[in-house]
Amino acid sequence: MAIVRVALDARSYDIVIEQGALDRAGSHLAGYARKGRLVVVTDAHVAAAQLPRLDASLRAANVAVEPIILPPGEQTKSWRHLESLLDDLLALEIERGDHIVALGGGVIGDLVGFAASILKRGCHFIQVPTTLLAQVDSSVGGKTAINAKAGKNLIGSFYQPGLVLIDPSTLDSLPQRETRAGYAEVLKYGLIDDPDFFAWCEREGERLLAGDPQAREYAIERSVRAKAAIVADDEREMSGRRALLNLGHTFGHALEADTGFSDRLLHGEGVAAGMALAFRYSARLRLCPPADAERVTAHIKAVGLPQDLASAHVRADGAALVAHMLHDKKMAAGTLPFLLARGIGQTFLSKDVALDDVAAFLEEDRATAGA
Question: Which residues lie across from 155 on neighbouring strands?
């Protein structure tokens, strides 16, 4: 078992990483139960695969489970499902001192976290992430949100959980596509500022994707430690350091918008293509060695993730994709910061990128990929 501390003064919390933690959830979560119960919010897929394990462990610890089961998919991060969830929580008489358990992937974690942040002006919640993407990224750091018609994660808050409980064995039930999508966020940490970790991914990534327990736990812990350190240094993305975690996301969110935030392109797949695009755009600007951009693209392609517009099933032209970017929540004074790279492990924030040049690059990149 590994325990990683997110150091945020009064808002500090632990991330517990333990194989089989879900089957021992009673020992981890019983202390958070008030009046002998915990409300657990999940989706229909996770409810079938993982809720019985959590329920059995909590009941063995004399904690009753009150489940709320939502539809799976990105569309659940919506006003409609947020309202429905809040009504259900109020009907269960949730109090400000209660902890709501978010059992699921990034959609459930984001939605439950946002609901907790506004219910009765703030109650507590616990993240129990069940996908690789959620375990290495979205469950850590307190970003909560729902989507809007204008774009992804535009309505939300910074709101830290009281605990993150990670059981790598939950990944056994995931479709391979979901695991690959989560792997994109693992790669991100190497590309930001840890070239040795990226090299590890090149050597061992296939083992991780094949379900090797040691590779899995190593990647999760290393990713979580990297994110915890960044969040502790820049909780609300004020200094710019936390913005580095958005590598690939500006391009990726535009690709997701073009595909309607649907299963045509999973979030991690959009991030993978976005990171490859960010490195190739950096090479086009002569900031990054072309060999590094080629290396990143080659590894993303080798593990079966999209690395360009065609493999991401994106049909929009460059101008339309840039129009999606204009709704990005990071826009400030009409300028959109971009995460670019001087090389693998050398990501930086640029605030002087010309969006018409980005549109031209996307068209050129599409043509090159199709050549």
Answer: 146
Phi first, then psi: what are they for 355, rounded to 5°?
A: -65, -30
Interaxial angle between packed helices 195-209 and 213-233, expressed in degrees from 0 to 180 and rounded to the nearest 10: 140
Alpha carbon separation from 355 to 40, 240, 340, 358 (Å, rounded):
43, 20, 14, 5
144 Cβ neighbours under 8 A, 6+ residues apart: 109, 110, 111, 112, 113, 114, 116, 117, 156, 157, 158, 159
Classified as helix, coil or strand, 42 is: strand
CA distance 253 to 147: 11
Active-site residue list: 121, 143, 185, 227, 237, 242, 246, 249, 253, 267
Quote the DSSP letter at residue 34.
B
Q: What is the pLDDT along the chain (371 residues), one digit of tens a residue?
A: 999 999 999 999 999 999 999 999 999 999 999 889 999 999 999 999 999 999 999 999 999 999 999 999 999 999 999 999 999 999 999 999 999 999 999 999 999 999 999 999 999 999 999 999 999 999 999 999 999 988 889 999 999 999 999 999 999 999 999 999 999 999 999 999 999 999 999 999 999 999 999 999 999 999 999 999 999 999 998 778 999 999 999 999 999 999 988 889 999 999 999 999 999 999 999 999 999 999 999 999 999 999 999 999 999 999 999 999 988 777 766 678 899 999 999 999 998 999 999 999 999 998 887 65
Question: Residue 39 in 3-state DSSP?
Answer: strand
